[in-house]
Write a structure and sequence with these properties.
The structure holds 2 protein chains of 2 kinds. By secondary structure, chain A is of the alpha+beta class. Chain A has 2 domains: 1-40, no CATH class; 47-301, Sulfite Oxidase, Chain A, domain 2 (Alpha-Beta Complex), CATH 3.90.420. Chain A has 9 helices and 12 strands. Chain A has helices at residues 11-14, 17-32, 66-71, 84-88, 113-118, 147-153, 191-195, 247-251, 294-297, and strands spanning 98-103, 109-112, 123-130, 135-145, 161-166, 186-190, 200-205, 208-209, 219-221, 234-240, 275-278, 285-286. In chain A, the strands form 2 sheets. In chain A, strands 3, 4, 7, 8, 9, 11 and 12 form a 7-stranded mixed β-sheet that branches. Chain A has a 5-stranded mixed β-sheet with strand order 2-1-10-5-6. The longest helix of chain A is centred in the first third of the chain and has 16 residues, at 17-32. By secondary structure, chain B is mostly helical. Chain B has one domain. Chain B has 10 helices and no strands. Chain B has helices at residues 8-34, 42-62, 64-71, 80-102, 107-116, 118-135, 139-145, 147-154, 156-171, 177-203. The radius of gyration of chain B is 19 Å and the shape is globular. The model of chain B has no long low-confidence stretch (mean pLDDT 95). The chains are: A alpha+beta, B mainly alpha. The interface between A and B is medium-sized, with 27 and 20 residues.
């Protein structure tokens, strides 16, 4: 199996950049020739994914550079500094990997990562990411609508919510030795939010397999919610009748609500959410309701008091 | 004990060393900035770093009286002004980072921050209180105010330090390790002073 013999040192460090690029081009070429299926699955960070549907750039947004996207992360499982995940995440073992889907479903099952990669055609989606800390990025994710997975497990009539549970293993995730959150990391969505086509089951970014510090090998991206709603390194998905309690809500219920929709009109109790700093820009820009996706998602919350349901 | 009383020459050398050491964090930020190595969010980095060094220098400045009490190093007080002024220097940089880089003179947003964000509500007056202390730090000002009035005024530094630590505590999202460390140091320093004050009272 190729690429398995380099557990600690990045290939780019022992191979010349040029050769490295050539190797990537070779992989792309093979993928292009339709031989990808004959090779072992694409799993190591940095490997190209075969994207069937490239992004539709409906509105011009400058992408946040790859370096910033992969060096500035909130992923407390690897430390609370934003530089920590990029430094510490190499201990994470992303293969083999499975997601157990259970609860209120007719067909509970275990998905391995190979199956997830083939479950639906991979699409590139350029989404804005708005962190609850009032900074933002624009990231070309790779994945497909989470609804594709929901279809496979057939929720029962009792299923009202979906809970996402991330990996809990302090040996792989040394930040979990610090009880800063109640591990494992848990997040949740209402079923209709989870079904929404924008909710992305994410396997890559910038056309490549998800880097470990970005939540490898599989995470969620919900672009109209604050970043912490988008659970990373998911191992379990549970369909439930009762509303799940997410880790951040448990740690500060008056600061981090269940919905956590991006909303410039509802401040965090300790700082303003009216503006945000786009990484790479100097002046702050105005934060948009639902992070600019109001047209697509506001009907999910029709009639709801968003001040109360923050 | 040779360390209790140092010659004027030794004290000047220690002061020169403190001067260089206190400028190192700024120098490091300058180099990182020049090399474009301040990370994805340089404004946050500059603000956090100057804030951290303000608190560190405040703690160091407040540790000199306890050091004198515990170890009898009489000269320690002679470097206090320099540490205090460097604390003010980093606090000013910290404030400028906020005013210019973070808010870019958005006065409405700044006013809202001061009124509505508790960590700024305590941090901003703590910074303002540093200004009269810096202005009255010269020998001439000490003479003009008179020793007792000057000492009373400079007791504000206790309030400033408490405000600074609370400011940090309230702004952190979740990981309180650093604010707790600063708070513990401050409590320890206050505790030592209190203990000696009580000893003095009981001796009388």
């Amino acid at each position: 199996m190729y690429h398995k013999s380099s557990p600690t040192i990045a290939a780019s460090e022992i191979t010349s950049r040029e050769l490295f690029e050539q190797r990537r081009q070779f992989i792309q070429l093979i993928a292009g020739l339709g031989l990808a299926a004959l090779l072992p699955s694409e799993l190591s960070a940095g490997e190209k994914l075969t994207i069937v549907k490239p992004a539709l750039y409906t509105q011009p947004e400058t992408l946040t550079p790859y370096e910033d996207v992969t060096q500035y992360n909130n992923f407390y499982e690897f430390g609370t500094d934003k530089e920590a995940p990029a430094k510490n995440a190499d201990t994470l073992i992303t293969h083999p990997w499975t997601i157990t889907v259970e609860g209120e479903v007719h067909k509970p099952q275990v998905f391995d990562i190979e199956r997830l990669l083939k479950l639906a055609p991979l699409e590139e989606r350029v989404y804005r990411l708005r962190c609850v800390e009032a900074w933002s990025m624009v990231i070309p994710w790779v994945g497909y609508s989470f609804s594709e997975l929901i279809k496979q497990v057939e929720p029962t009539g009792n299923a009202k919510f979906v809970e996402f549970v991330s990996l809990h293993d302090p040996k792989q995730m040394p930040g979990q030795l610090n009880p800063v959150l109640n591990w494992p990391y848990r997040e949740g969505l209402r079923l209709d939010e989870a079904m929404h086509p924008l909710t992305l089951l994410t396997l890559g970014l910038y056309g490549e397999v998800l880097p470990k510090q970005n939540g490898a090998p599989v995470r969620l991206v919900i672009p109209w919610k604050y970043g912490f709603k988008s659970a990373k390194s998911i191992v379990k998905i549970r369909f439930t009748e009762k509303q799940p309690i997410s880790s951040w809500t448990a740690s500060g219920p008056n600061e981090y609500g269940f919905y956590a929709n991006v909303n410039p009109a509802v401040d965090h109790p300790r700082w303003s959410q009216a503006k945000e700093r786009r990484i790479g820009e100097f002046l702050k820009r105005k934060t948009l309701p639902f992070n600019g996706y109001a047209e697509q998602v506001s009907q999910l919350y029709a009639g709801m008091d968003l001040q109360k349901n923050f | 004990m040779p360390l209790k009383n140092l010659s004027n020459l030794m004290v000047s050398r220690i002061k020169a060393l403190i001067l260089v050491l206190s400028l190192l964090p700024l120098f490091k930020l300058g180099v990182l900035g020049y090399l474009d190595q301040l990370g994805a969010n340089p404004i946050e980095k500059l603000t956090r770093s100057t804030g951290y060094w303000t608190l560190t220098l405040l703690m160091l400045g407040l540790s000199l009286t306890p050091i004198r009490l515990l170890l009898g190093w009489l000269w320690a007080i002679r470097v206090r002004r320099m540490l205090g002024l460097f604390a003010f220097f980093y606090a000013s940089l910290h404030f400028l980072c906020y005013l210019v880089l973070d808010q870019f003179f958005d006065w409405a947003a700044i006013a809202e921050d001061i009124l509505k964000r508790p960590y700024i509500t305590v941090g901003f007056p703590a910074f303002l209180m540093l200004i009269p202390l810096a202005i009255t730090s010269t020998n001439n000002m000490i003479r003009r105010l008179g020793g007792q009035r000057w000492r009373n005024l400079h007791k504000l530094v206790y309030l400033i330090a408490v405000g600074g630590v609370i400011h940090y505590w309230w702004l952190v999202k979740k990981d309180l390790t650093n604010p707790i460390t600063f708070a513990a140091i401050l409590l320890l320093l206050f505790g030592i002073r209190l203990k000696y004050r009580m000893l003095k009272v009981s001796r009388k």
